[in-house]
Amino acid sequence: MRIVRDYEFVEDQDRGATVAIGNFDGVHLGHQSVIELARKAAPGAPLGVMTFEPHPREYFAPDAPPFRLMRAETRAHRLEKLGVERLYELNFNTALSSLTPEEFARDVIAEGLGLAHVVVGADFCFGQGRAGNAEDLQRFGDEYGFGVTIAPLMEYSEHAVSSTAIRNALSEGRPADAKEMLGHWHRIEGVVIGGEQRGRELGFPTANMSIDGLHQPRFGVYAVLVDVLDGPHEGSHLGAASIGVRPMFDGEVPNIETFLFDFSGDLYGATLSVGLVDFLRPELKFDGLDALIEQMDADCAKSREILAAL
Predict the structure, then answer these.
(1) Residue 249: is its pLDDT beyond 60?
(2) What is the CATH classification number for the domain harbouring 248?
(3) Which of 107, 121, 138, 306 is the most buried (most CB within 10 A)?
C-alpha cells in the first residue's frame, strides 16, 4: 500500500483512484461498507482511502482527553488488510482546515489528487467549519469531474455504528459489543517497553505497552488474543492483560500489561497487537501479594477457558 501525505505533490500512479473519505478511527463495519462501495464504484481503478493526520478533533482540541481507537500505524495496517492500495493520509493543518468546501473539492480532490470517484457516509461534513455536506460534495463532483457515492449509515442494535458507540462499549467493559460493530476484536498495538518487572517477580512476566493518546477501555483484566508482529518471537498467542494504573503498587500512568500463556522469551522492543476479547474483572487492590497471585492464577484460568471456546 502506497501512502500519500501531500495533495500538492502527487505522482501520476497515485491519481485516478476511487477513494473512501473519512477519519476511519477503528475501521469499523460502517467504514468497511464505505470502502466496499468504493471498491465496486470503479472496477480496475486503484482502491484508496483518504483520511487525516492528526485527527481533526486532536488538531482543534489538543488538550481534550484521548479518544482515538487506534494510532495511525494501526489504522494503516488494518486498511492494508482490507485491500486498500492508496492511503491518502493528508496532513491536517491550518491551510487544509481553512479551505472552503468548494476549495477542498476542487483543490484537493479534483486537481490535487486527481480522484476519479469518492465515497462518503451520509453524515459526512467537510471544509472550514464543517460547512459542506454529502449533497454539496455531489454538486461539486458534477462541476469538477469526479463521481460521488453517498453510503447509508449502518446500524447495530437499532443504533448507528460509530466510533463513539464503540468507545462507549469499551468504556463499559463490553469488548464483545465493540467487536460486533468493528467486525474485528478491538486491538491495542504498540512497542513493548521496560517496566518495573514486578510481574516477573510474581511469576507472571508481562509485556508492558503505553496507551498514551488512545481511548482508555474500562480498567481491569481481560482475556486477550496477542499477535507478536515482528522479531524472533513473531506469531500468535493467548493471554490475559491488565489495563489501568496498578493500584497495588500506587501507579499513576495507565498502561497495558500482557501475560502470554506458555511463552518464554524476551519481547522488549517488539511490536504487539493485543485484542480485547472479554472483560474479567475491574482493577482491585489486594491485602497482600499472596492474594494478588491467587487472583492472577484465577484470571489466567478463566481467560484460557474463554479463549478455548472461540
Answers:
(1) no
(2) 2.40.30.30
(3) 121
